[in-house]
Amino acid sequence: MLARVVENVYWLSRYMERAENTARIINVNAHLLLDLPKGIAPGWLPLVDISGNRAEFDAKSHKLEERDVVQFLAADPENPGSLYSSLQMARENARTLREILPTEAWEMLNEFHSEFMRELSTGLAKRARFRFLNDVVGNLQKISGVLDGTMSRNASHTFLILGRNLERADMTSRIVDVRSAQLLPAETPELRPFETVQWMSVLKSLSAYQMYRGAVRSRVRRADVLEFLLRNRQFPRACMFCLDQVEHELKSLQRGEPVVDRLDAVRRFMARAPLEALDQAGLHAFIDRLQLHINELHNGIARIFFPKPQISGVQQLSQQGQTQSQTRLAF
């Protein structure tokens, strides 16, 4: 199969996953701010940090207010991580793959993209936003379900799973890093009851709360949440689960051994981390290194399976782990 075909499938999957996660965290943040006292609520800026596009946000002289942050994350065409940009690029990749993708999946994505563009201006209003973003998540999950249920298990499907799981691992690590940095300081015991609310928001950002309670069966604790979201091998949005899926797919490909070897090193690094003993600075340093590892996995896949960088009709984006920035890559 042509390298450009599997590459476009890979990026289609990453853009869809990125859009779904962005919609999730906007909705969850709105609920978190309702649950916390006004003086200690983290506000909206942490969402920009999660997206890795703080420099672009600051360059536009935005105010640190809800309206500006939501507009930047959902509707800004110049923000490479916005819903607008992610869905635009997902559709563009899918358009080039119409002979490869199931017809139903292309038609659903094309129709959803048109509906999203029509409703974007009104859907971000406070009264309509929850339903609008829930529809984004629901439609993307439906499209993913159609792809999983109707694609032949060939190279295209392999790269669909690779893209999805690398993006998930990256977004999960970002959410844990930035969200946990916004939690209450230890020296404020009178506010400690609200710490549980904030860790619950970390779980809910990833639709992980119910599965966490089923697995842990105790109150929500920092160490347990970190263990579940970073090292659980059964929850599909946990970093370790995503890396296991990447390995499984790579083993079905020829020439994938160098990336599999790197994966083994990443998992050893994760397994050795004393998560319960890490303070916030130590956790941040750990996740910085994890994101660098994830980016190196992407680079390894790109070097082996994708053509050399060149300007093409579809300009791709790649999450960069270091300092949580995003770099444009054109393949």
Q: Could you characterize what this model shows?
A:
The protein is mostly helical and 331 residues long. The protein has one domain. The protein is built from 14 helices and two strands; from the N terminus they run ααααααααααααααββ. The chain has helices at residues 3-35, 45-51, 54-59, 66-75, 83-95, 103-123, 126-150, 155-181, 193-205, 209-216, 222-231, 239-250, 257-272, 280-305, and strands spanning 315-319, 326-330. A two-stranded antiparallel sheet has the order 1-2. β1 and β2 form a beta hairpin. The two termini are 17 Å apart. The model is unreliable at 310-331 (pLDDT under 50).
Topology (elements, then pairings):
Elements: H1 3-35, H2 45-51, H3 54-59, H4 66-75, H5 83-95, H6 103-123, H7 126-150, H8 155-181, H9 193-205, H10 209-216, H11 222-231, H12 239-250, H13 257-272, H14 280-305, E1 315-319, E2 326-330
Antiparallel strand pairs: 1-2
Helix pairs in contact: 1-5, 1-7, 1-8, 1-9, 2-4, 2-8, 5-6, 6-7, 8-9, 8-12, 8-14, 12-13, 13-14
Order of helices and strands: HHHHHHHHHHHHHHEE
Q: CA-to-CA gap between the ends? A: 17 Å
Largest sheet: 2 strands, antiparallel
Low-confidence runs of at least 5 consecutive residues: 310-331
Q: What is the arithmetic mean of pLDDT?
A: 86
How many strands in all?
2
Give Rg in angstroms: 19 Å
Task: Note the beta-strand portion.
Answer: under 5%
Shape: globular
Give me the number of helical elements. 14
Number of domains: 1
Helix content: 55-70%
